[in-house]
Amino acid sequence: MQMKAVQIHGPRDVRIEEIAAPALTDDGVLIRIHVCGVCPSDVRFYTGSRPGITYPRTTGHEWVGEVLEVGANVSEFRVGDRVAAFGQRVCGMCRNCQKGLFNICLNRLPAIRGGFCEIGWAVPEALVPIPDGVSYDAASFTEPLACCYNGISRTPISPGDVVAIIGVGPIGQILAQLARLRGARVVAIDFDEERLDLAKQLGAWATLKAGQPDLAEQVRDLTDGYGADAAIVAVGSPRAAESAFKIVGQGGAINLFAGTYPPTTIAVDPNVIHYKQLWVTGSFHFTPGGFRTAMGLISRGDVNLLPLVSHRLPLEEAGRAFELVATQGGMKVLVHMEGAN
Fold first, then answer.
1. Any domain includes 236
2. Residue 98 contacts by C-beta under 8 Å, 6 or more apart in sequence?
3. What range does the domain containing 175 cover?
4. 166 with 243: CB under 8 angstroms?
5. Which of 35, 94, 163, 225 is deepest in the core (most CB within 10 A)?
């Protein structure tokens, strides 16, 4: 069986080609993919900024669709079921899994094959049903929402705290909503006025323009001179990371959520961490439990995700979709396969 798929042959060289679809296995499921969201990690393959890239390749991991066929040994799903797929099939027995660090399992097992293509394959353990009433567009946010849930879970936030979100693109907007669910007052920080306006519409307590020399003073003015209780860096920028250490108050927490490409360093005086008694942490990926939690948040309407979508494009315009994200020409960009609703 053949299918249409995005094939990236090199930096900014995107082609839509006919390739072999995944084969059905006895223990697997074939899914007709309806929607796949564009993630910054996809864009790094598109731009060639990720070290060690090999081509050609099909990217994409934020995909959802409908069950097309099930293997002989699969009883959990039936043809026609709507599902979201995730790539975190963990061993459960390695050192990291036994410490609860399922997101960095040392022995991850084959789970899915799919992305910006018409047909995907997955094992049942890597599929979560999409509840009735949840659109494919909304369900495609499950993976990034699960990553944000992991980040929020690793950031100490109490009701009434002031949490600064540095960078309010799609990920920052989701983090802001999750911080509000924990009772925080969110200060959204970004260069882009439209993104700040959207953050305000979605419930941010205050918005501030990034890059201003008095940014830390502005945060202190909002917090009776104390500074933010926590800052989450949601953009891969050394300057953004460095600013977090300036705007948090004593006893505050900093989460370096976003990776930086290419790898870099930041200038931080260790005395700032020492004398302000800061918590500094990172967060990577998501856990299987976090993915299911994310789907629950979406189905209950606890997060408002569809306002984040700026573009819905067909598979044939995948190159434009990648370029929009690479140049920050929109917010969340979704690619719809042929026949998607």
1. yes
2. none
3. 155-282
4. yes
5. 163
Query: Residue 184: pLDDT band by 50, 70, 90 thresholds?
Result: very high
Strand 29-37 to strand 13-20: parallel, antiparallel, or no bridges (unpaired)?
unpaired
How high is the pLDDT of residue 2? 95
pTM of the entire predicted model: 0.96
Longest distance between any two alpha carbons in the chain, whole Å: 64
Encoded tokens for 28: 């697997």
Task: Identify whether 35 is part of a domain.
Answer: yes
Say if residue 91's pLDDT is above 60.
yes
pLDDT digits (tens, 9 = 90+) for 256-273: 999 998 889 999 999 999
**CA torsion angle 249 253 258 262 (round to 10):** 70
Query: Do residues 109 and 12 share a domain?
Result: yes
- Residue 43's CATH number: 3.90.180.10
DSSP output for 110-173: P-EE-SSBSEEEE-GGGEEEPPTT--HHHHTTHHHHHHHHHHHHTS---TT-EEEEE--SHHHH
Q: Does 52 have pLDDT greater than 70? A: yes
Is the backbone peptide bond immediately before 144 cis, with ω within 30 degrees of 0?
A: no
Nearest CA to 122 out of 226, 25, 9 is that of 25
DSSP assigned state of 124: G
Q: How far apart are CA 26 and CA 133, in angstroms?
A: 31
Chain-centre distance for alpha carbon 269: 30
Q: What is the mean pLDDT of residues 169-189?
A: 98
